[in-house]
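User: Predict the structure for this protein chain, please.
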Amino acid sequence: METLLSNFKIGHLALADPDALGLPSWPWRTILITSAILSYLTAVRVLRFRALRRIEAKYAAYMDDPYRLDYKQAQEIMHLSMLYEFPFLFVFGTQWALIKSYGIANGTRLLVQTRQLCDPDKVGKRAEDTAVFLVELLAGDPDSERGRLTTAKLNWMHGRYRIAQGDYLHTLALFVLEPQLWVERYGWRPTTTLEQVAQFVYWREIGHRMGIGGIPDTLEGLARWRVEYEKDNLYYAPENRVVVDAAVDMFLRQTPRFLHGVVRSLFVSFIDDKVVRESLGYPDPPAWATALTTTFFRLHGFVVRHFFLPRARPLDPVAKPGPDGRLYRSPDAVAFEPWYVADTWYNKVVVWLKSGGKVSPGAKFQSRGFLPEELGPAVFEKSAKEPVHDQARALEEYIKNRGSTGGAGCPFSFR
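Assistant: Here is the predicted structure, written as structure tokens:
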């Protein structure tokens, strides 16, 4: 017993102070540090694919034919990419889907006429409203009253204008294909066929609820349709450049003036398709800008895959209801202007820091929150209320009668 106690004390002394026994200290410290690093990297490797394995196990019966998914199942799978695995690239790809849609002159002429995306006083709200619509439709519950009102308001606004079905479908195709393209190029892993088809199935249902007809039956068919449509409809018009310049100027608001030229070059480098660049009226980017952006995104994917543990839970960007029943956005969700962010000290500090001290929540940015039927230009807030609620009730019947079948069949008619 005395021998055991003696050995224990010697061992403990050696670990606590190796120099006390005349042992070199660096091997022990090196071993401990190396073991900790290896343990961490092993944990990253083991846990990094855990969420994907779980979703594939849950939907194993659909792996051979993911098109059998209904839209609710598809949304759950889409959330794996959108809110857990690749939120940064998913959001980035969606932003560039919007930018690329401005290469279709029919749409930009309308945007210039309404001045919603070229008036400096309106462009910020239009951008934030677009983000709210997308979050509500993609991250929220499209079947809830809130989701139906959001869809109905979107349809009501679009229904006021003569927009070609092809332009609707082209924008939908970009929303499906662009995030997948960005993840495929720069994500820490490629998306699976199950994930890709799930995004298509869910967007197809959203398209049907927006009254978009002619959606191809498969993801591959949608990609082919986009290519054919762009052959005749993707070309330069002055309005294209006006709308995109307004978007660039919005990005530059938070950038020091001496960096504006650098940011413009980086912006153009994100538009990797020469035909799209020409349709927007932009020149080819300088080689250094392309090299810098490509290196950044590839390095980001490598570091996330090998050195970052997966996030503890999916992101939750959906606006939260307040005690008054209105919906309030998180300051973290703000891109340019703090629309619908409550005027609290915490939110003021967060937005002030994000904007470099340029903006802060307040009455100017409707800090009293929002209701889905109020989204969009303020001038239509009162006139839209009754027809939007009527259409939301019609959507409820549509969902009961056909919406739960997975998106097959005729689109909802909102005009």
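The beta strands are 320-321, 327-328.
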